[in-house]
């Protein structure tokens, strides 16, 4: 929708401004002796007032050739040709009107024909003024739109980050691990100590990455490995961990704790639902500018429903969207008894500049 | 002698319970189970007095397992890592609930309470499961035992239910399951926005109702999508019409 036609207030303002310009133009013609005051008001004024509506069409021109995007020679050619063509057309309209009006205002058509260049110049000036105004309006709207979009994105990003931080350490994991340590103290003190240290390392890593906006994939994978080492002690032989990691991907950066919820889900909905054990498979690959991370696990499709499901995936999706928009995606779905969560994001070696 | 069964899917968690129980000379651990199915089978076979029960487990969770147990004398102590919902409800009926990790002292206190409870007549296990689930949580799965097998019927696959004396007959995907439960107690546990008692002896899944036809002067028939005809009482019709109108 045309920004001026869309609002009555704007249209009124535009027409008022235009009328003053037309009055000025007619006055100049009258003072120069080309037309009388009455002729100016009756013949030239109305035609140039109608020209204001014609000039509104330059909006389409401005949108088709945006400043800073269209190439300069093209822009100069368009900005010269369009007002000239518009003005020439309007001079023709005026002369047709004048020859009609010559019945009441003798020789007005001849006098206006002599002043042709001045009328043409005026028309070009008006058209250029309309074009300039439309460019200003477009720039104004674009900046307002950008501000709005940026505000929304920033809010979403902050929300998602906050929730990620809150969900950092899953209480189930923490309490169950502590319970396993409690069991091991009498059965196998050495392993109890080992689990304490693994758990401490995991907590330390989690705290350390919490206030960063990006970490190396290698660090995120180390965190996941540490987490799975703790869970392996808890679930013993029931948990099998498989890795298929391309080492060259380690230096790309990811938002911290992006992979972690997927790995935790794989344990919670996988091995925790299967008495006979389950696998968690993590793979990382990078090709043609994209980083692809996949977490897979088998699960029991008929397991009792678990509370608080789906929040982790939603959170990961929101964080990806806030940071990379349409350039990143998370596909997560079960197929038979295997759940597969695949992350794809731009392969970047450092944080995108703000 | 108190005969105890430990139910937890984690080896180490069972080891803690076993270790702490070994200090009680009057308690014998007769079995350990690692999932809900085993728990149901073992408890029915061995009829223990004391059940140490984890909640989140493979196959059937602790609540679902309890639901199938009708042991007259069974003291249940829940063992759970973190479960706000259950905690509130446990205070009503369970002998005790222990939050992992728990100390030996806390464990012993729970056993002491179990001993006291075993002297009295405990509530039925199924009632305990119902109470533990708490208000506002409706059944998503219904567990039914058929001999040695346990069937799990998802609530959204349940077409209709018919009362047969002390039993309910559950109809799901062309199959029929018989469960010992009254229709009123099942009605209470089902989500009232999805299931409706349309007759003294019938509960229907609203999504399955295709149309309603007049039958006698005072009654109507609900025709399900699969062609099944169910009686609708006058009061049932008023409720059914209201629900179906509300759903559009």
Provide an overview of this structure.
The complex is a heterodimer of chains A (354) and B (248). Helix content of chain A is 62%, strand content 13%. Chain A has helices spanning 8-31, 37-56, 58-64, 72-101, 108-114, 116-166, 171-187, 189-210, 217-235, 260-268, 311-324; strands at residues 215-216, 239-245, 253-254, 278-287, 290-298, 329-335, 338-346. In chain A, a hairpin with a 2-residue loop joins strand 4 (278-287) and strand 5. In chain A, helix 1 (8-31) runs antiparallel to helix 2 and helix 4 packs across helix 6 (116-166). Chain A is rod-shaped, with a radius of gyration of 36 Å. Chain A starts with 7 loop residues before the first helix and ends in an 8-residue tail after the last strand. Chain B has 2 domains: 2-133, Response regulator (Rossmann fold); 141-247, LytTr DNA-binding domain (OB fold (Dihydrolipoamide Acetyltransferase, E2P)), CATH 2.40.50.1020. Chain B has 8 helices and 15 strands. A 5-stranded parallel beta sheet of chain B has the order 2-1-3-4-5, sandwiched between helices. A 5-stranded antiparallel beta sheet of chain B has the order 10-9-8-12-11. Chain B has a 3-stranded antiparallel beta sheet with strand order 13-14-15. The mean pLDDT of chain B is 87.
The count of DSSP E runs of length 2 or more, i.e. the number of strands of chain B, is: 15
Cα-to-Cα separation, first versus last residue of chain A: 32 Å
The CATH homologous superfamily of the largest domain in chain B: Response regulator
CATH names the topology of the largest domain in chain B as Rossmann fold
Tell me which CATH architecture of the largest domain in chain A applies here: 2-Layer Sandwich
**CATH class designation of the largest domain in chain A:** Alpha Beta
In the CATH hierarchy, the architecture of the largest domain in chain B is 3-Layer(aba) Sandwich
Averaged pLDDT of chain A: 86
Strand order of the largest sheet of chain A: 2-4-5-7-6
Fraction of residues in H or I helices of chain A: 55-70%
**Sheet with the most strands of chain B?**
5 strands, parallel
Q: Name the structural class of chain B.
A: alpha/beta
> What fraction of residues of chain B sit in β-strands?
25-35%
Main β-sheet of chain A: number of strands, strand sense, barrel status? Answer: 5 strands, mixed
CATH fold title of the largest domain in chain A = Heat Shock Protein 90
How would the global form of chain A be characterised?
Answer: rod-shaped
- What's the shape of chain B? elongated
């Amino acid at each position: 929708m045309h920004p001026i036609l869309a609002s009555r207030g704007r249209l009124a303002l535009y027409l008022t401004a235009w009328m003053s310009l037309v009055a000025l133009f007619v006055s100049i013609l009258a003072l120069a002796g080309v037309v009388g005051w009455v002729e100016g008001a009756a013949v030239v004024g109305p035609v140039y007032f109608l020209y204001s509506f014609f000039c509104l069409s330059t909006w389409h021109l401005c949108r088709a050739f945006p400043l800073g995007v269209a190439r300069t020679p093209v822009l100069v050619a368009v900005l010269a040709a369009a007002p000239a063509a518009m003005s020439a057309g309007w001079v023709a309209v005026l002369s047709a009107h004048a020859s009609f009006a010559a019945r009441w205002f003798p020789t007005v058509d001849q006098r206006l024909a002599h002043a042709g260049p001045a009328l043409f110049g005026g028309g070009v000036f008006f058209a250029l003024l309309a074009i300039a105004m439309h460019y200003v309006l477009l720039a104004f709207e674009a900046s307002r739109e950008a501000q709005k979009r940026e505000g929304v994105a920033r809010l979403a990003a902050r929300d998602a980050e906050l929730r990620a931080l809150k969900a950092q350490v899953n209480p189930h994991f923490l309490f169950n691990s502590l319970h396993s340590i409690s069991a091991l103290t009498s059965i196998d003190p050495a392993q109890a100590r080992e689990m304490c240290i693994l758990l401490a390392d995991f907590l330390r890593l989690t705290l350390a990455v919490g206030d960063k906006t990006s970490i190396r994939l290698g660090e995120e994978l180390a965190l996941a490995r540490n987490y799975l080492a703790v869970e392996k002690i808890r679930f013993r032989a029931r948990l099998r961990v498989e890795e298929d990691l391309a080492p060259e991907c380690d230096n790309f950066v990811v938002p911290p704790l992006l992979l972690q919820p997927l790995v935790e889900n794989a344990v919670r909905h996988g091995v925790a639902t299967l008495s006979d054990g389950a696998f968690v498979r993590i793979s990382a690959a990078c090709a043609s500018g994209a980083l692809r991370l996949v977490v897979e696990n088998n699960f029991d499709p008929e397991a009792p429903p678990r509370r608080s499901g789906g929040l982790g995936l939603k959170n990961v999706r929101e964080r990806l969207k806030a940071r990379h928009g349409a350039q990143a995606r998370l596909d997560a779905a079960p197929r038979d008894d295997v759940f597969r969560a695949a992350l794809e994001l731009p392969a970047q070696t450092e944080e995108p500049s703000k | 002698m108190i005969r105890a069964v430990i139910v937890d899917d984690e080896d180490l968690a069972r080891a803690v319970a076993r270790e702490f129980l070994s200090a009680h000379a009057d308690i014998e651990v007769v079995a350990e189970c690692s999932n809900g199915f085993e728990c149901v089978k073992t408890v029915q076979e061995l009829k223990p007095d004391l059940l140490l029960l984890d909640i989140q487990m493979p196959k059937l969770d602790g609540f679902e397992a309890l639901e199938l147990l009708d042991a007259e004398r069974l003291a249940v102590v829940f063992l759970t890592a973190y479960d706000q919902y259950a905690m509130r409800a446990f205070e009503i009926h369970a002998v005790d609930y222990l939050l992992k990790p728990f100390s030996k002292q806390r464990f012993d206190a729970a056993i002491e309470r179990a001993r006291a409870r075993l002297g009295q007549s405990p509530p039925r296990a199924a009632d305990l499961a119902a109470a533990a689930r708490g208000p506002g949580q409706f059944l998503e799965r219904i567990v039914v035992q058929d001999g040695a097998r346990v069937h799990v019927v998802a609530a959204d696959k349940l077409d209709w239910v018919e009362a047969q004396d002390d039993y309910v007959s559950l109809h799901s995907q062309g199959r029929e399951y018989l469960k010992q439960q009254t229709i009123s107690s099942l009605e209470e546990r089902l989500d009232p926005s999805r299931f409706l008692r349309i007759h003294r002896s019938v509960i229907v899944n609203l999504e399955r109702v295709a149309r309603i036809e007049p039958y006698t002067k005072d009654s109507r028939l609900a025709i399900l999508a699969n062609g099944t005809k169910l009686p609708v009482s006058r009061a049932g019709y008023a409720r059914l019409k209201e629900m179906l109108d509300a759903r559009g």
